[in-house]
Specification:
By secondary structure, the protein is of the alpha+beta class. The protein has helices at about 155-170, 170-175, 205-215, 225-235, 235-245, 260-270, 275-300, 320-325, 335-340, 360-365, 385-400, 440-455, 460-470, 475-480, 490-505, 510-515, 520-530, 555-565; strands at about 20-25, 35-40, 65-70, 70-80, 80-85, 145-150, 180-185, 190, 195, 305-310, 310-315, 375-380, 415-420, 425, 430-435, 540, 545. Strands 7-6-10-11 form a 4-stranded mixed β-sheet. A hairpin with a 4-residue loop joins strand 14 (about 425) and strand 15 (about 430-435). Helix 1 (about 155-170) packs across helix 4 (about 225-235), helix 3 (about 205-215) crosses helix 7 (about 275-300) and helix 12 packs across helix 16 (about 510-515). The longest helix is centred in the middle third of the chain and has 23 residues, at about 275-300. It is elongated.
Amino acid sequence: SVSAPAAPAPAPVSAPATATATTTTTTTSSSTSPYTFSGSGIPAGVTVGSTSPPAASGASGASSSFSVPVPAVTTISAGATTIEAAPPTSDAAPDTVKQVDGCALSNIDLQHNLDDKEGFAAVPMAQRPTYTAVVPEANTDKVTVTVIAEAMCTDCKEHSYHLDQHVMSQGADLRDQIEFKLEMMVIDGWSYRKGAGICEKGMWDCMLAQWHLSGQAATASSTLSSWDYTRCLFKAQDELIAHYYTSFPGHAMPDATSDLMEEVVAGCASSAGMSFDEIKIIQESKGVELLWDSFGRIKEYDDPVWIYVNDNYVEHEADWLATICASISGTDVPKACAAAMDLRDASATSMASSSADSVAYEAVTKYMAGGDPEKVSVYIVGEAFCPNCKEHSYYFDKQVMTPNGVRSGVRDIMNVYMEQMVLDGWSSDRDAGMCEKGKYDCVLGKYNLCAQKHSGDDATAWWDFSRCNYKHQAQLVAYYTTSSESYTGHSFMESVTKTCASSAGLAWQAVEECVAGEEGTTLLKHSYTRVSDMSMPVWIYVEGQKIAYHDDWLSAICSAYKTKTRGSTTAQMPEECTYA
């Protein structure tokens, strides 16, 4: 075919560029281009899509050259669909593209050669649609779940299974709260000569990616039907790879056609309640454009990413549902989210009869309800002498509260409270808690609670105090759990807590009076009452949802805050949330 590719830079030029092509002796008959081009600059005697160039003066032998201006195409029509094309491209690359004996180009990207394959009508470079960097706004009333995938990536197939099991199959009321967005990776870059993606497993990998994206662009028959369609395509991944590729990686079956892929797509469209005819029209007319746009948005990524929630990366599958649930606004809580808010142990004898009886529900809707409604509720169940809690406090400080030793802006978007566990019960005779590691385990718990009550103008200074106490935990435990009677005095506890209060900017005397008086006992008893059904500390809960992995804590908080502040003209997103 005669084509006139040019470079992809967006700046327009005042005159058409010139391309040089080379002809070789061939017996192939002329074919009609699948696209109809309209515009200026097509020279007389040249039919775009023809395999025969105009006669060149002095042309003879097996190889000759000629030059034609690049058409200044404004639209590309395919059937009933019209694609707006890019303006003429700039001089970001040489003005001419040369081919010698038909070898230089044909030996490049062999497994991605689209020239003679059925269904692979790539948009020529001069007509490639302009990439727009702005992603359309999602439905502002929903939680955005974004997936960056590869069509023939086996790990992506596994991730699609987990997303379906953990989230998408958890009820229509949850699905109604989700806006699903799909991006498809083009791992090996973009062939600007062909105007086509270079996917990891070759041309059929790219074609399947186009079908994925075309399904997302089609009219949805119901909420998340595009997800059901995509999940179905992932289920068929093994069959498609076996059909289109040899056992040698990247080598396509030489005689493969698009028939099986279209058959699979048709079945997936039907199972998702979508129109195959509509998806096919989109794929044929805009498939390359959709893949190009997706490539432009995510080309800096080296690997697929599952998943983003409100544009914050949630790495661990166990936290996907919880982060989505924490980010849902309104009072209509999906059943799957309500069930996850019950923080009591499954083995507990007094199980909560509903989410309204659960620890998390009490904390978020009642105990913490007095906080700023635009802030995110973060709830911690800790224990003063618990070594695991010391480790958790390290990660909470480094990832959320004080990253790189600097007070985080995320502190200003949270209502944070930390309970203190009293694992062995409450003595009614002494009106005192019975903590796992003895009396001073309870005493340090009182210090942590009283610091929260008397934190002063700095609402999170208590955290710095508690974190400091955890840093000294090993010395405190060693001192107060020895069998020697000489180590039962209060002076060492005073010394540690004075030091920590000073470093946190707290008035130690007010905290000490609280610990020594009835107030400290009452705070500890209330904490015991709220979490008595729990058998171990848990870090952390965001809007009543347990976020199990340290890596996802910041993302869950930031995602929930984005939901709470949608439409606000005054709320500011902390800088740390842009990294999550």
